[in-house]
Amino acid sequence: MSETIFPVPAEVAERAHVDNAKYLEMYKQSVENPDGFWGEHGKRIDWIKPFSKVKNTSYDYHNVSIKWFEDGTLNVSANCVDRHLATRGDQPAIIWEGDDPSESKVITYKELHREVNIFANVLKAKGVKKGDRVTIYLPMIPEAAYAMLACARIGAVHSIVFGGFSPDSLAQRIEGCTSKCVITADEGLRGGRKVPLKANVDKAADKAPVDAVIVVKRTGGDIKMTEGRDVWYHEEAAKVSDQCAPEEMSAEDPLFILYTSGSTGQPKGVLHTSGGYLVYASMTHQYVFDYHDGDIYWCTADVGWVTGHSYIVYGPLANGATTLMFEGVPTYPDASRFWQVIDKHNVNIFYTAPTAIRALMGAGNELVEKTSRKSLRLLGSVGEPINPEAWTWYYNVVGEKRCPIVDTWWQTETGGILITPLPGATDLKPGSATRPFFGVQPAIVDAEGNFLEGATEGNLVITDSWPGQMRTVYGDHDRFVQTYFATYKGLYFTGDGCRRDEDGYYWITGRVDDVINVSGHRMGTAEVESALVSHPKVSEAAVVGYPHDIKGQGIYAYVTLMEGEEPTDALKKELVNHVRSEIGPIASPDLIQFSPGLPKTRSGKIMRRILRKIAEDSFDNLGDTSTLADPAVVDDLIDNRQNRH
Ligand code: ATP
Ligand code: MG
């Protein structure tokens, strides 16, 4: 791994909320006196009834229980909307950029307030009450944010299902939380293509019946409306008042359920509650992105993922920020779109995923360089380990060596960012998520759960709770305990492998399942992938282990080449030699398969579980593939597999 250090630029430190000395002091206080620290920072949001208790959490395997600010009451939508009206009512809350570059609009806090109130009254009129679950299956349109905040306003619990999911996956998730109301649109629009959202809801509702379907008109496409169940949102909105008093909620009342992306197995219904989640989402948003009033902030995630919940909607809006919401995809109309949107709206802070960075890197520098990007000040990455090659490209080409990169490690389960640089405080090392956020106590343990000290490598655990932590798996507390607290009793197990270096920096090496053992040498697949991607002809790589008679495990690499490169045997040899010289002979791939596409979840993560099966030449039972973005990729991989018995 690369050990080049990028020090904090002086002008960044000067402007930032915290420099390194302040980080160290605040971090120390946050772990030595969590009640004092969070008691203070808990006041960053508005409480109806202030809390008197701060932390009440137990990681005891027999009694896992997580409560923060438990006797306080608040309303999340009032925090994200109403409280900004007096000071910034006319400031943009949301800048919406449509799929088609000619479409965009600005929603001020005043307008947001009106829209959320109306949406809340529509929900009430359809019989939705406090505590009810509402499934949201919408494209990236402002109504998605209105719907989330409307649920929060009346105390309903939203469960967003990403618009790319199939009717079956949607039905599963409607049933999973016994939701009686679905909010959708006639059709979505992504990359110029229409997505039949309402038709999918119809199919899902055949399996998982609901009482009400509220349909937002997006494209005007031809859809079927079922009498007595389906209503047009705009028709209902015209009938209700634009005033809806926010419900007083307890800090520990549920805010939302979100199913994890399912890269490792059956998705889990992660439950987040109101007070602690909002404190943590807003605080991380302010400090990690060093957000200041007036900044234009853009997170490219979909609201169907936790990143969209915490860092498009709840965190930024709680902070009175301007958050950009993008309906489209990075490659439409062409692969210059992100950079054009940055120029169009003068984006200062840009947060995206390694999968997008690698794809855009593969498209060539001209597409970036023809844009200005002068407004950019900070870049962010989330979702997977970012290989140093992609990091360096992002830093040099996109950020023109001017913008620090925050590589943020976290999970659906954690509610917000746990390990990350702070731009004014942390010297960067490409590929490292660096240091813990306030209140977060990471540790590395071996397979038996022994704590490993100093520079070391093993399994990443967190030893104590932070306010944004999930509270349970919806309806299945035992699954929550078994999944996260049973492997190492008394510790939250992340499922991720991790290395800590001499400077105390954390490097996520991938899922623990992705660590391979070649002739007794343990290595993270991310390391071999980084080496492959550092070859100029390689755009993306995924590495898995497969049973090998002599070595125990062999290295099987799936490689996607840059546009226009020929997949030849000579190139395979060249790649093997390249990895040998980058890491050493022990890491040489045994088998390389050129693959035009990799199986990815709809959030863009490589589904290694499937790649492992194909590499093992046992692909009859690939398990749950319902979360795959493009199932056809799998057939091509099977046809061209390199390990045939
Ligand atoms: P499932 O839990 O259903 O298998 P998932 O883990 O992909 O799905 P998410 O909660 O979306 O669902 O992803 C969290 C995981 O993503 C982390 O556990 C980690 O493996 C990876 N990850 C996220 N951010 C980073 C990062 N900055 N560096 C390295 N890995 C990251
Ligand atoms: Mg996970």
TrEMBL record:
Species in which this protein is naturally found: Roseibium suaedae
GO terms under cellular component: cytosol
Name of the gene this protein is made from: acsA
Enzyme type, top EC level: ligase
Keyword Ligase listed: yes
PTM text: Acetylated. Deacetylation by the SIR2-homolog deacetylase activates the enzyme.
Top-level taxon in the UniProt lineage: Bacteria
Name of the protein described by the UniProt record: Acetyl-coenzyme A synthetase
Sequence positions bearing N6-acetyllysine: K605
Source lineage: Bacteria, Pseudomonadati, Pseudomonadota, Alphaproteobacteria, Hyphomicrobiales
Binding of Mg(2+), residues: V533, H535, V538
